[in-house]
Structure formats: C-alpha cells, structure tokens
Write a structure and sequence with these properties.
elongated, 190 residues, Arp2/3 complex 21 kDa subunit ARPC3, single chain, 7 helices, mainly alpha
C-alpha cells in the first residue's frame, strides 16, 4: 500500500517489529493462556501486502529462521515457507489487490493451512523420536486445531494491520491537510 516509503523507515519499522513480535511470540508460547497468533508467520504476509517489494522476502527469511530456532528444529522448513509466503504476498500486492481485508484474510487462512500441513508432513517424514508417527492422526490433529489458530491469526493480523497503518502513516502530510482545513478558530464571525 505504501511502495514509496523510504528504505531507512522500512528497516526501522520492520526491524523493531520483528524483534518485538519474536519476543511476544516466544513469551506467549512459553505460558499459553489463550491461543496466540503466529506473529512471525503474519509479519512477512502483511509486509508483502503493505509495501510491495523484497521486504517480505527478507522478513520471511528472518522470521522463518527465528521460528525454526525457537522450535528447536532443523533450519530450512520455516525459512523456506516464510520466504515463499512473503513473495506470494508481495506478488499479490503488486498485482493491485484492492480488497486488502478480504484477500489478506484469505491469505492468512491459506498460510496457516499450508504451514500446518507442511509441518505435519515433516514431522511424519523426519520424526524426532525413535518411533515413527502415523500420518493420518498427525493431519487430523493439525486440522483440528486449525479453526482456533485461524481465529487467533486473523485477530493478530488485524492488530498488526492497525500498527502498520500507524507506523507508515505520513504524519507531516496529515498535519498539513488538517491545518489547511477551514475551522471555526480562524473564521470571521459577523
């Protein structure tokens, strides 16, 4: 939505966002009181929709690395998934997606589904223990959690969209347009 934002500002916003969201997600996963949104999955998606370009690709790589590192699994699956989802979001934003809320919601739903299916498949192919896990119960368990995770991710996406709207807002232009608007303070009254 804001492709003209300077690189320095994008680096500050996305860098701070990545650090804060990683800490929030890690702390929330240690003490789960309610379903936590997967902020590190959502950040590349929303970055791709918000500022089309390569930002989402790099954020997907960094967020995927953090997700893999925090989960204690081999690097690669989360990083690859984050990069691909970031590129997909950037491509869709570049193709002039105007219905941001509807299509962003569909992208969040699809990303959550793809992530759960890929991680279930990897848990089946490369089990951490000595005993192999059956694929069908893994998939059923993963799909059983999907509605709650999707609702949490949609709520997290709404929160992050509001934060990005405030972070990328052009405050100087907004103040200038507010001062140009006629008001009662400077008007002549007869």
């Amino acid at each position: 939505m804001r492709p003209d934002t300077p690189l320095k500002r994008r680096l500050i916003i996305y860098g701070a966002g990545l650090l804060i969201l990683a800490l929030v997600q890690l702390e929330g996963s240690l003490h789960p009181a309610w379903p936590m949104p997967d902020f590190l999955l959502l950040l590349p998606l929303l970055a791709g929709l918000w500022t089309p370009g390569h930002d989402s690709f790099i954020l997907g790589l960094a967020a995927g690395f953090l997700r893999d590192y925090a989960a204690g699994r081999g690097y690669g699956a989360g990083m690859l998934l984050g990069m691909l989802l970031g590129l997909l979001a950037s491509y869709l934003a570049h193709q002039a997606w105007r219905a941001y809320a509807i299509r962003g919601g569909l992208l969040v739903l699809a990303a959550g589904l793809v992530q759960d299916l890929i991680l279930s498949l990897l848990a089946w192919l490369l089990p951490l223990g000595d005993q192999p896990l059956p694929l069908v119960p893994l998939l059923l368990q993963s799909l059983g959690r999907l509605p709650v995770k999707t609702a949490a991710n949609l709520a997290g996406a709404l929160l992050m969209t509001g934060i990005l709207a405030l972070a990328f807002r052009d405050w100087k232009k907004a103040d200038k347009s507010r001062s140009m608007a006629p008001g009662l303070k400077g008007a002549d009254h007869a």
